[in-house]
């Protein structure tokens, strides 16, 4: 699912990261998603943060690396490139949608 991929990406790019850290980035709760990703062996507990409550830190597993064909996290795409592609996609979709609306209005 998109939520699973988003959560995996957040963990991969920000590990080690706490559940609260993931939720701060996603903007929604992620307890169930974390449980599912652990059950699929794509993420694991990698330690505890030295802060009140000692929250669990999560990171990706070797299974994650194998699944996505990675030998190192350095092989992940640069986030700046992803943001630029996403912005270009938004611009394209906006322009394309406007052109379709214009054509529909003229018929």
TrEMBL record:
Coiled coil: none
Record has Cell cycle as a keyword: yes
Pfam families noted in UniProt: SMC_ScpB (PF04079)
GO biological process terms on file: cell division; chromosome separation
Statement: the UniProt record of this protein carries the keyword Cell division: yes
Lineage top rank: taxon: Bacteria
UniProt keywords, alphabetically: Cell cycle, Cell division, Chromosome partition, Cytoplasm
Entries under PANTHER family matching the protein: SEGREGATION AND CONDENSATION PROTEIN B
Record protein name field: SMC-Scp complex subunit ScpB
Record organism: Thomasclavelia spiroformis
Lineage of the organism: Bacteria, Bacillati, Bacillota, Erysipelotrichia, Erysipelotrichales
């Amino acid at each position: 699912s998109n939520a699973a991929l988003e959560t995996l990406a957040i963990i991969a790019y920000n590990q080690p990261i706490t559940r609260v850290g993931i939720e701060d980035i996603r903007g929604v709760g992620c307890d169930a998603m974390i449980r599912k990703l652990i059950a699929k062996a794509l993420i694991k507990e990698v330690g505890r943060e030295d802060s009140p409550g000692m929250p669990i830190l999560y990171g990706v597993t070797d299974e994650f690396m194998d699944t996505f064909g990675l030998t190192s996290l350095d092989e992940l795409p640069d986030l700046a490139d992803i943001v630029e592609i996403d912005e270009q996609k938004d611009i394209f979709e906006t322009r394309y949608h406007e052109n379709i609306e214009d054509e529909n209005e003229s018929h």
